[in-house]
Amino acid sequence: MDERCERVAAATREVGADTAVLSAFDSVCYATGYVIDLESGPSAFAAGPPIALAAGPDLALVLSNAEEGPAPRARRAFTYEGFSAEREPPRDALYVDSVLEAAADLGIGGVVAVEPTTLPLAVAEALRSRVERFVDIRPALARQRAIKTAEEIELLRDCARLAGAGQGAALQQCAAGITELAAFAGIRAAIEREAGERVQLVSDLLSGAGRTGEAMGAPTNRVIGYGDAVICDLVPRHHGYWGDSCNSFAIGDEPPAFAGLYATATRAMDLVREILRPGLTAAAVDAEVRSVTLDAGYELPLHLGHGIGCANFEFPLIVPEERATLQPNMVLMLEPGAYAPGTGGVRLEWMFQVTETGNEPLSDFPFTSLAA
Amino acid sequence: MDERCERVAAATREVGADTAVLSAFDSVCYATGYVIDLESGPSAFAAGPPIALAAGPDLALVLSNAEEGPAPRARRAFTYEGFSAEREPPRDALYVDSVLEAAADLGIGGVVAVEPTTLPLAVAEALRSRVERFVDIRPALARQRAIKTAEEIELLRDCARLAGAGQGAALQQCAAGITELAAFAGIRAAIEREAGERVQLVSDLLSGAGRTGEAMGAPTNRVIGYGDAVICDLVPRHHGYWGDSCNSFAIGDEPPAFAGLYATATRAMDLVREILRPGLTAAAVDAEVRSVTLDAGYELPLHLGHGIGCANFEFPLIVPEERATLQPNMVLMLEPGAYAPGTGGVRLEWMFQVTETGNEPLSDFPFTSLAA
Questions:
Q1: Are residues A86 and B317, on separate chains, in Cβ contact within 8 Å?
Q2: From A44, A134, A184, residue closest to B311, measured CB to CB
Q3: CA B296 → CA A231, B230, B340, B341, B368, distances in Å?
């Protein structure tokens, strides 16, 4: 049994259930390997979200004919007619029937672990006659998912490599006289060239003192100027896993406030690489690294980091009040920075695997304080 | 009251309910004007989808602090803490509490119209004590939404204009020796330059005999060749509405099968412009136009058209078994084509407003059989 299936089963047992019905895109991907297309939004030719059903090692997937794709860890896919060139199919009824067929096939019943904030009412109602009660699997599943399998670590390393290709391109694309949007187009093209296919890409791309001081925001038609600072946060999704990354750099010449911000963020990232290890709490990592920024007189309005996997933000968050203990094979994004609202901001972000004794970066792009 | 609010209220009454709770991204946008970001997938910092509550003219919106944005037709937004730099907030409880607060504020109760395939179980359970029963608003709301308001028609015209900017760029970007992905990057950049901001863009971009014969597919790293045919279907989303479009053209020189396919698709589109008018059924339009393709000995594996609005595919579909009658101020995509699997394919697609007496194209890009 794939270790991810084992972890779904463990979470199911942990919440006192025998079987599970999963409806969140990232849980479905985690359990079955099926990658839901997110970029287009929910398919108009599906009645509802793809549903993964799990009974121990036995997994099934329900999805429409408009969404077919590999689901390597599902024993069987129950596909209903969502798209037809002839008519509007009775897809709601077909969807619910497929869920019931899959539930019967796997023996879903009794106490069933679900995700109550994504499970559609129509699916819950249909299952009701088979189910004694629903219980929430999410906190248990989040903890199980935090420890990555060897295969997941390779998938995440690949995502980190794509993000790094984008960061390399960013140093070329971001130049005086170019809009943020045009630079972003070139960065995306470089990532897709590297992947050889379309890649979903989420990003912050900010230039100038005012924008970088705000820490987050999509690229706009602002023209990048000579002497501007840039924050470039690139989050590609590939094969169902996410790669996060951030670099900050100046165009041609460092603006006045940049050196102090950049030196502080660099010191914070150096400290991350020095201290990140199993046994520490998320809060302890946060406290040590955050103090580098605060002691230098700058602000840090964001979390310091987060888990990553089939979702970009996973348990644990690296924040002041998170008492979770770091464990080997967690994969964490650490994104220390330094911000001075109105004046500028710098953020550096790498992906790290927590190892038995410390950490190993999965990101390999260099932080570079000047664009090419 | 905005006509869209009236139409939500009418659909609510039609299904025997007094109030409505909407959970699908497109319904929330239609009712409140709030544009949910789709490109990144569901927000990790939201407990569940934004929820719109409607009691006659009175609308409220529930969403997380990570999703704040204008909701011009909502009297009030109930915002809960989904993101915090300090801790993982108890966002599920806050989400449900906000829904209940909004429900109390609007007097949601009795028979409540909902969307059962997107309404999360957690929200349904929370509302249960206020609700006598849930009824499905979707078929009634789909029919109401099919008739566009004057403001919607202008929004859709603007989307058609952005799609047209992309089609213009496609004729420049698609060239021998360029990959489909690189051409797509240039097309997207042109649309975003025109819009002055990031634009969600869904697309088919297919080159060569084999690919165009398959009718649909994302751009790949296939290198476009001299004498290739290209199908370029661009679907931008702007201000919560979608613009669809398709052009087909040859690179440098028409491949052998192209002329016959293109002439057939052109004849079919000419017929659309001639016959599309209120009073016809969708099936009748389909039959007349489809026969142009079939009589020429080609295939048409897709629907002939569809409504468009806050969703890309809306009621009515223009398909053989759809008996709905076309009405003034429906906005429809018509996408006749001709396909010969293995040999090639051509698709032409424009947006049309059904008028009192006929139709008016909202698309204005020219169909052009040769790239620049």
A1: no
A2: A44
A3: 56, 21, 11, 14, 21
How many C-beta neighbours within 10 Å does residue A177 have?
Answer: 10
Count of Cβ atoms closer than 10 Å to residue A317 Cβ: 25
Contact assignment for B321 to A39 by CB distance below 8 Å:
no
Using DSSP's 3-state secondary structure scheme, residue B134 falls into: strand
**Considering only alpha carbons, which residue of chain B is nearest residue A38?**
B41
CA distance B92 to B101: 14
Q: Is B128 on the interface with A (CB under 8 A)?
A: no
The reply to whether A223 touches chain B by the CB within 8 Å rule is no
pLDDT tens profile B122-176: 999 999 999 999 999 999 999 999 999 999 999 999 999 999 999 999 999 999 9
For the entire predicted model, the pTM comes to 0.96
The size of the A-B interface in CB pairs under 8 A is 165
Which of A131, A69, A78, A76 is closest to A101 using CA atoms?
A78
Q: Exposed/middle/buried for A342, CB within 10 Å: 0-12, 13-18, 19+?
A: exposed
**Residue A188 sits at the chain B interface (C-beta within 8 Å):** yes
Q: Which of A86, A116, A319 lies at the smallest CB-CB distance from B122?
A: A116
Minimum-distance CB partner of A189 among B119, B120, B182: B182
Furthest-apart CA pair in chain A: how many Å?
Answer: 68
Q: Which of A67, A88, A319 to mutate to test the interface with B (most CBs of B within 10 A)?
A: A88
Q: Which of residues 229-288 of A touch B (CB under 8 A)?
A: none
The residue among A252, A226, A215, A348 whose CA lies nearest residue A292 is A348
pLDDT, block means (10 residues), chain A with 372 residues? 94 98 98 96 96 96 97 97 95 97 97 98 96 97 98 98 98 97 96 96 96 94 96 98 98 92 98 98 98 98 97 98 98 97 96 98 96 88
Query: Which residues contact residue B146 at a Cβ distance below 8 angstroms, ignoring those fewer than 6 apart?
Result: B307, B314, B315, B316, B324, B327, B330
